[in-house]
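Hey team,

Filing this mostly as a record. A colleague (T.K.) asked me to run one chain through the structure pipeline before their review meeting, and I want the input and output archived in the tracker in case anyone asks later how it was produced. No errors, nothing strange. Just documentation.

Input sequence:
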Amino acid sequence: MIKNRPLTWNEKQKLHPNYIDIIRHYEQVTKRPFMREELIVLKLLVEKAYPAQIKQTISRFQKTCPDRFTSLSYIYRPVTNMFKNKRGN
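Output structure:
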């Protein structure tokens, strides 16, 4: 089982630059640290949509409903429905 804790700087540096860009945007917009178990959701999101689309969705959901936007998994369903078949999936 994954121990849910914030990702360290060294762990973030081992990721792909697209992941780092999305994580940086998420932390900047939500003012919360990126947790370890959200990394699984992030990898699934990148399979479904481009990083710019994911960052746009993060900003939009944080602006419209900041009290309910507590995790990256909150936007998984909307992203998969909005950007269906955009990456050949």
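Quick notes for T.K.: The longest helix spans residues 17-30. The helical segments are 9-13, 17-30, 38-48, 51-64, 76-82.
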